[in-house]
Amino acid sequence: MKKNEKQTFLKTSIIVIITTFLMKAVGLVREIALSYYFGAGVITDAYNVALTVPATLFEYVTFGISIAYIPIFTNISHRHGEKKAFNFSSSLIVSALIIVTLLNCILQFFTPWVVKIFASGFSGAIFERTILFTRIISWNIYFLIIADIFCGYLQVKDKYIIAVLASLPYNFVIISSILIAYEFNADILAMGVPLAAFAELIFVGIFAVKSGYKFTLNANFEGMSEFINLVIPVIAIVISEQINGVIDKTIASGILVGGISILAYADKINSMLRQLLARPLAMLLYPKLCMYAAQNDKRNMGKIITKGLKSIVVLIIPIMCSIQILAEPVVSILFGHGAFSEDVVKLTAQALALYSIGLIGYSAREIMSRALYAIEDSKAPMFNSILCVITNIILNIILSRFMGIMGLALATSISGIVSAVQFYFILGTKFGKDNLEMKSFYITSLKTVLSTIIMASILFIINYFLLNDWAKISLFIIAGIVYYVIGRIMRIEEINELTIFASSFFRSKKKNV
Questions:
Q1: What does 147-175 look like in DSSP terms, one character per residue?
Q2: Is 33 among the domain residues?
Q3: Whole-angstrom Cα distance, residue 215 to residue 209?
Q4: Which of 284, 355, 372, 434 could form a disulfide with 270 if both were Cys (CB 3.0 to 4.6 A apart)?
């Protein structure tokens, strides 16, 4: 990247990450509300499984659309104009709705058998409630599909902030449903999910129309063959990963009552960190990767991939290490209220610490997978995902026998790291080691690890003498300062760029004043 491109990327990244952080904070309020009013027990286990069932059956449709829509819409628009691209969008919406309608009819009829697959340890009241919740929640997919297409269009138009803000109305409705369910009827928890998805659709739909989206009834299958070729392996990826999640929950349901919820709470914190840092970077880099892919410019693609991976390493490794030390106060402050007991806090903290080990692997995959999707290669990510799932299943079986539900969290982390390493070598073959600037990546990684070790040593010593959870949480700030100073001393490129950007920003503000 050129200097001005780096500054623009950094500025946009900071804005998107801050916005994402605020949205995740709202999402965290949602999880805190659920844990406060319902704790970890029958209702939350039923609710979490009910959320997982339709996601497993339908997520491959939404994920496939989010991956394949942007490059296909862009290509059609470039070759034939936006009118035909909008026709393609309409055809895609109709086709997707037909597919999910068939799947939803099957789910509604076979719900008891499907739930038994997802949580074989459930019986009696919890089993019946999970069936009811699943049947209600499954209707949210109709709204989410159209919302995903609108979000894809907004990203094409560089409206990244609006795409990120889409979760705001969703979370607002979910939080409201939790409060109402606690006061009146727990079944309202499930009803809030499709209502939340509808609110999200209205929000992104309004901004998509303002950005120029045109509705059309003309069918246009131009680009549909490319879309199908790209999306079929993506579907296989999602199915394989969802099977992996089903196995996790099935094993957890037979180990410990509330075990599914404990893993869910821990994974949500871990996933939030990944979505806060890795997902925005992947979203920003994807259009550029698609642009250079269309030009067959592997050199610039390699530079963008390396830039993204170096950013991930510099951001994720110190956070990953800090979570290892401060997992319990984090969980205690976020969820340790109301029905969420102290024992559950400790178990959730242990699971979070183990999940966070794999944070670097799964975050790196966000960037690397987009690079392959940009060149319309979804088969390599598919095989990589299958490897990840197989590794996880084997480790689940082995580690759960010795570590209980904690073995499931550790297995997930190890499989993510193994998958990321294999992914990186795939990129080396596809783009060339010179284009990926591997030497630069290794040097940055080494400097980051050394800086993190020093930071973690200081953090561990200070944490040992503190007793208050809020005081311990404040150590994240101290850790950040220490890491920044050491990173500057070691001349980590990304930290130096951040310093230059901050200096120029404050200088410009000073001049304006």
A1: HHHHHHHHHHTT-HHHHHHTHHHHHHHHH
A2: no
A3: 9
A4: 355
Whole-number pLDDT of residue 502: 56
pLDDT the model gives residue 222:
62
Among residues 201, 99, 98, 184, the alpha carbon closest in space to that of 140 is found at: 201
pLDDT score recorded for residue 219: 59
Residue 394 CA from chain centroid, whole number: 24
11 belongs to a structural domain: no
- Three-state DSSP at 404 gives coil
- Reported as type and span, the H/E element at residue 18 is helix 3-38
Residue at 22 is within a domain: no
Residue with tokens 């037979």: 254
CA–CA gap between residue 145 and residue 139 (Å, rounded): 11
Q: Which helix (H) or strand (E) holds 337?
A: none
Residue 267 is part of which domain span? 259-513
Check whether residue 156 and residue 268 sit in a common domain: no
Cα–Cα dist 71/228, whole Å: 13
Q: Distances from the Cα of 308 to the Cαs of 244, 373, 436, 452, in angstroms?
A: 27, 15, 11, 19
Burial (Cβ within 10 Å: 0-12, 13-18, ≥19) of residue 309: buried
Using a 10 angstrom Cβ sphere, with 0-12 exposed, 13-18 middle and 19 or more buried, the burial of residue 105 is: exposed
pLDDT of residue 8: 66
Other beta carbons less than 10 A from residue 213's beta carbon: 19
Token digits for 121?
């340890």
Residue 380 in tokens: 């390599």
Q: pLDDT below 70 — which residues of the chain? A: 1-10, 40, 218-223, 238-239, 241-242, 257, 339, 498, 500-513
How far apart CA 452 and CA 459 sit, in angstroms, is 10
Predicted local confidence at residue 120, as pLDDT? 73
Q: Helix (H, G, I), strand (E, B), or coil: what is residue 321?
A: helix
- Please state the domain count of the chain: 2
The single-letter DSSP state of residue 474 is T
Question: How far is residue 348 from each of residues 31, 35, 39, 351, measured CA to CA in Å?
Answer: 13, 12, 12, 5
Q: Identify the burial level of 316 via C-beta atoms within 10 angstroms of its C-beta, where 0-12 means exposed, 13-18 middle and 19 or more buried.
A: buried
For residues 417 and 268, the answer to whether their CB atoms sit within 8 Å is no
| Same domain, residue pair 385 and 468 | yes
- For residue 101 the two structure tokens come to 């309608």
Round to whole Å and give the CA distance between 423 and 436.
13
